[in-house]
Amino acid sequence: MRTLVELLTVSFLLSLAAQAQEKPTPLPSRLEALVDAQFKATSCPGLSVAVATQNQIIFSKALGMADLEQDVPLRTDSIHRLGSISKLITGTIIMDLVEQGKLKLDGPVRQYLPELPSSYQKVTLRHLLSHQAGVPGYRDKADIENFAFSSVHYATSREVLKTFMDKPLLFEPGAKIEYSSLGFTILGAAAESVTSHPFQQVASDFFVRHGISGFVLDDPLAIVPKRVRGYLVDPNSKIALADGHSMARDYLAGTAGEITNARAYDISNRYPAGGFDSSSEDLLHFVIAVGTEKVLRRETVADMWTSQNTADGTKSVFGLGWGVSRSTANKMVGMNGEEPTSTTFLRYFPDSGVGIVVLCNSEAPRELPELLNDILRTTLQ
Fold it and tell me: What is the pTM of this model?
């Protein structure tokens, strides 16, 4: 027959076991286990992930390498090329200039850039920010060579206009949607016109004025501390074109290896569209600052994060510079980015303050969207 002490001991141990079962694993620990388990499947040389809840960063981790040749590990403060996530930064800069009264959202862009052809007379900043201006995307091999892989270094966005502004618009502004990086070069040129500064200085002044740190433009000639190297992890992958077609990577002929260095390019021809660099944490801090109205007024953010439908009412996934959508019935904003050097994702839920940044220093990784979705599910559950 058990003694009273034995019974009390058993009861105490059972109580501890029950408490241990009831206490859930902390979210940062679950996220770390998830990212660690799936990192290899992504094939990213280096991967950086940052997650926020209630507008506070609660998880940040870097895995893999920032530079394979020099054997440099990736760190949480390593600087990644953000690709098209840059568009939402530029969108915020443009809306800041609108708030200052320097730009008009619904006025013709030619009032700032009179050198644009007369076909641009009906094009507004709103059209450009929401990809409804009719400015072409990359539609053929020549566009890829001349724009995506440009080797020319430009001092200003306005200087770039002459390389494409004579291309005809694809449709009446506001009638349709065609994703266009060159449209954001026009936005950068408009900002240059009203400030009398190159876009690089416009962006720098914006960051300083709002106390935002950690962002640089990806000048290939500049020394950028902690900037990661970029790679291609699937030489057989195709380059997608705006018209739905794709092209093979003929430039890799004669190069062996499952992982190659990214093809060199100079992104100064599209700084506003894809040229910003930052760490995952600094990017998330920026988004939280916008979401908590520390950068723009509430009504400006609401306009920026509202779907800009076409003239016939067709629903759009674009606001003003930002992608807008819903996930699990919650409003979500963000953007995906892809450059020859990187693949990036940003998701932010304004109502709950949940934010997720995933940055990979390679084009064409595998199973990265799956990792993003798993992080979303884990964080939102």
Answer: 0.93
